[in-house]
Fold:
Amino acid sequence: DGGITQSPKYLFRKEGQNVTLSCEQNLNHDAMYWYRQDPGQGLRLIYYSQIVNDFQKGDIAEGYSVSREKKESFPLTVTSAQKNPTAFYLCASTPGVSGQPQHFGDGTRLSIL
Amino acid sequence: AQTVTQSQPEMSVQEAETVTLSCTYDTSESNYYLFWYKQPPSRQMILVIRQEAYKQQNATENRFSVNFQKAAKSFSLKISDSQLGDTAMYFCAFMIDSWGKLQFGAGTQVVVTP
Structure:
């Protein structure tokens, strides 16, 4: 079955360490997105990409970086510059046609050690 | 900037009853899309329903229906015949551009009790 795979499910980060969250999709979707979810809040957009080798900052991009070297992959790096990284991270994708709903992965829970 | 407001942090409903969740949004655009997503305790984000702004007919999906009032910028979700499996956080979301970006509300926690 087609879908979006996020790994790992749980991730722990030490102070000063960069960590990378994986997101892979086999839906042949053009557009991919990263969201952050904090307790009791909605999702906030970190980065998004519509085509390979191109991506745009979302509302809360500071302290994060991404790459889009392949259509199916959109990894997110949480850098040491992100001072409050503890959150639930969700990856999503769409076909890239306007108005189509986003499909989501199961998420990664990042915590600070 | 577009904003999405869900004014009910939590709602409780008994099995088989009906509950309505409110959502309002702010935009100057005329063509856009609205969604309701459900996030159960597993934290998966599941699409519940989609509405196109240029369609006057309210969308329905089985027990889920919306009341879309474009002039009032309101997009409420009605859950009929509530089931225990409907217990989840429900998010209203607004999409306005060809990038497919979504603006989410803060969510409404729905608890279905026996």
About this structure: Chain A has no helices and eleven strands. Chain A has a mean pLDDT of 93. Chain A touches chain B through 26 residues (CB under 8 Å). The CA atoms of residues 65 and 77 of chain A lie 5 Å apart.
